[in-house]
């Protein structure tokens, strides 16, 4: 898979989809599978255009939605699906000023787009002035995909965020078609967990505002454990979210490794305890509850 950061002129014709694709839920996957199917049939490249940061983060970072997955996780997923090329476009003031006509010309003349697979509400260009009819008039074939429904409910990134925030992993798995995971590199922490008898792997997350927090039963790659995603109010009171995992019966050196933490069950919300002894007792309860959950998987 090739990754492009600008609108470099492409020699190969392509079928493309354009969107933020936060979460890459089943609705997103249906669009992307359309792209791959059409591209193979016509012997075109399959392509995705996505944006970094999310446009809503650019326009209003305070009220912007939390990130379900990071850019790196998104690119890993595209690669796994077999996409030929991904255009990661920086959404900044210059891009926001591009008119619908200019953007249409970029798609047609620079990126060599022959067919676009889009959601029905797709808009583009400055002030969202462009729509499907403009693209059709420019000679680009348009496939408008149907909304993806599960149990009479439209699958969306907002619904995934809501389900994650409530710890409803059964619904999350249904919407994503897979368990929810956060990936990152294991880094050195302050060793506070080791000091109180529960050593943890500290994960450097690639997104700062995931849509969930609390204490969870998880898998770190293939090993079971308990994770805290929060600010550790009892021990340190961090200024930003931190992901740390206590892995059961594990002694290998993970420092520097890129790992995946899969969230399976929410055990409780994060809370501040009166002292470290109360925290240790609660961690023991969390571990027991997690092990009981894993026995019934």
Keywords:
six-stranded parallel beta sheet, Rossmann fold, Elongation Factor Tu (Ef-tu), domain 3, alpha/beta, 297 residues
Question: How does this structure look, described?
Answer:
With 297 residues, the chain is of the alpha/beta class. It has two domains: 2-154, 3-Layer(aba) Sandwich (Rossmann fold), CATH 3.40.50; 180-295, Riboflavin kinase-like (Elongation Factor Tu (Ef-tu), domain 3), CATH 2.40.30.30. It has ten helices and 14 strands. It has helices at residues 26-42, 55-59, 71-81, 93-96, 100-110, 132-137, 157-165, 169-176, 192-195, 276-295; strands at 2-4, 14-18, 45-52, 85-90, 113-118, 141-144, 149-150, 153-154, 181-187, 201-205, 214-220, 223-230, 242-247, 258-268. The strands form three sheets. It has a six-stranded parallel sheet, sandwiched between helices. Strands 9-10-13-12-11-14 form a six-stranded antiparallel barrel. Strands 7-8 form a two-stranded antiparallel sheet. Helix 6 (132-137) links the parallel strand 5 and strand 6 (141-144). Helix 7 packs antiparallel against helix 8 (169-176). 30% of the residues are buried. The model has no long low-confidence stretch (mean pLDDT 90).
């Amino acid at each position: 898979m090739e990754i492009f950061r600008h609108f470099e002129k492409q020699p190969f014709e392509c079928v493309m989809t354009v969107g933020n694709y936060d979460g890459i839920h089943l609705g997103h996957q249906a669009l992307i599978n359309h792209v791959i199917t059409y591209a193979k049939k016509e012997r075109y490249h399959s392509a995705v255009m996505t944006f970094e940061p999310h446009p809503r983060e650019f326009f209003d970072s305070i009220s912007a939605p939390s990130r379900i997955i990071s850019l790196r996780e998104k690119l890993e997923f595209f690669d796994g699906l077999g996409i030929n090329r991904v255009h990661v476009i920086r959404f900044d003031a210059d891009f926001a000023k591009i008119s619908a006509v200019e953007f249409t010309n970029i798609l047609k003349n620079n990126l060599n787009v022959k067919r676009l697979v889009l959601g029905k509400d797709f808009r583009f260009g400055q002030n969202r002035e462009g729509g499907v009819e403009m693209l059709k008039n420019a000679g680009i074939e348009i496939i408008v995909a149907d909304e993806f429904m599960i149990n009479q409910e439209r699958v969306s990134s907002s619904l995934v965020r809501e389900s994650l925030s409530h710890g409803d992993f059964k619904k999350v798995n249904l919407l994503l078609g897979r368990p929810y995971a956060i990936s990152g590199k294991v880094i050195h922490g302050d060793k506070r967990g080791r000091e109180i008898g529960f050593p943890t792997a500290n994960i450097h997350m690639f997104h700062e505002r995931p849509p969930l927090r609390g204490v969870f039963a998880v898998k770190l790659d293939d090993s079971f454990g308990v994770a805290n995603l929060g600010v550790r109010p009892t021990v340190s009171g961090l200024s930003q979210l931190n992901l740390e995992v206590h892995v059961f019966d594990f002694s290998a050196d993970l420092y520097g490794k890129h790992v995946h933490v899969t969230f399976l069950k929410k055990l409780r919300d994060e809370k501040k305890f009166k002292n470290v002894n109360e925290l240790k007792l609660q961690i023991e309860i969390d571990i027991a509850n997690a092990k009981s959950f894993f026995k019934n998987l």
